[in-house]
Specification:
By secondary structure, the chain is mainly beta. The chain is built from no helices and eleven strands.
Length: about 130
């Protein structure tokens, strides 16, 4: 099992930026997928972005492509989600998660992810 701790949420104006971090503890293997999801009240968790812990593969939802970037901070052993040009519709609780299955693919379904962080609120409003 991997424990995940997120940080970096908050309130930002439309067009602004936020940077979320996800710190995993426990053994992380190169083929693990580190995913970012978001959820608003009454809706299912929505895939945002993901990358392989090795860093060789990333995937983004169409709604965030070109605005969000996920990467690994090797110095801090964390995964970050840099969110730029934020819109009110990006408002949600953001979660990081890990898929521990041995696979070269990146899954978009939240059901495939094994461990989850506690979530951090991101609010985009003027």
């Amino acid at each position: 099992q991997v424990q995940l701790v997120e940080s970096g949420g908050g309130l930002v104006q439309p067009g602004g930026s936020l940077r979320l971090s996800c710190a995993p503890s426990g053994r992380i293997l190169s083929y693990y997928t580190m995913g970012w999801f978001r959820q608003t009240p009454g809706k299912e968790r929505e895939f945002v972005a993901a990358l392989k812990w090795s860093g060789y593969s990333t995937l983004y939802a169409d709604s965030v492509k070109g605005r969000f970037t996920t990467s690994r901070d090797n110095a801090k052993n964390t995964v970050v989600l840099q969110m730029n040009s934020l819109k009110p519709e990006d408002t949600a609780v953001y979660y990081c998660a890990v898929d521990r299955e041995f696979s070269t693919n990146i899954d978009l379904s939240a059901k495939k992810y094994d461990d989850w962080g506690q979530g951090t609120q991101v609010t985009v409003a003027s």
